[in-house]
Amino acid sequence: MRTILVPVDFTSTTENAVQLAAEWANHYDYQHIILLKTAGKSEFEILHIAEGHSFVNEESVNNLLARTESLFTQLINVITEKYPQIQVSKILSDWSLTRSINEVIKNQPSIELIVLGSDDHASSNDSYVSGNIISIARTSRVKTLIVPHHYRYSPIKNILIPCDIKGITKLERLFHHKSVIQREDVRLQFLNIDTHKGDDTSDEKKQELEDYIHQHLTEFPSSIHYSYDENIINGILSFASSHATDLIIALPGRHSFLYYLASRSISEGIYQNTNLPVLVLK
Hints:
This protein is α/β, with parallel strands linked by helices. 37% of the residues lie in helices and 21% in strands. The protein has a ten-stranded mixed beta sheet, with helices on both faces.
C-alpha cells in the first residue's frame, strides 16, 4: 500500500500540507497517509521532566493530549471527507521530529514520500515542522515534497529541474522516480546556471547534456535552458517566475536547494520560494 508521511503540528502550515498530501495521493495513486505528531520541545517538554521536578499539573498534560487528539481528528477529516478511499493513520511520538520520521520510515517500508509544510514571509505560524525542514530533507531515506504555506494544489504540467552540466549523471535519480513525472502532457525544463560571468558552458558540454537527456528521458517532452546568476537560488526562482512552472525537482549536486542551504540561511532558499512545491529526490 503506497504511503505518504506528513509530520504535523498545530499550525495552518501543516494543515495545508495535509490538504496537499490528500490531493497528491489521489492523483498519484497513494492509498495511505500517515499523520505524525511528535512531542516537540515547545509543546511536550513537560512530559519528559524527571519525576519530582515537574511544575505542571496532570490536568495541563491531559489538556495538551486532548488538543493533540482533536488535531488528529480535524486533519483526518480534511482527508477523508474529500477522499474517503484513502486510509489515514496517526502516530504520536515522544522522540525528536527527525528521529521519529526515520523510525516510522524504517518500520513502514511502504512510505514513498514525505510532505512537509513550509512557512513563508507572509505567514507567522512559526511551524515546528517548518523549522526542521532542512534536517528532515537531508536525513530522510525517501523523497520529500516541501510545500509553501500559501501553495494550493494544481495539476503538475511543467517541471523545472535545475541541474549541473558538470555532473549530468546526477540525473539518474529521475529514472527511479518516473511515476512522479510519467503523466500525460508533463513537460520537463532543465536549467543550468553559470555563477561566473564569462564562464560560458562549452558547446561540447551542452551537446553531452542534450544527448544524455534524449537517450534516457526520450519519452518526455523537454527543453534545456542556460542562464547566469551569481546566486543559484535566485537564478532558479527567477527562471521559474518567467516560465510556466508547477514543480521544482531538486537533484543532488551544486544546483540542489539542500546543497545551497548548507552554507546559507533557510530564508534565502526555502522561504524565498513562496509559490512552488519543491520535490527533493533521493
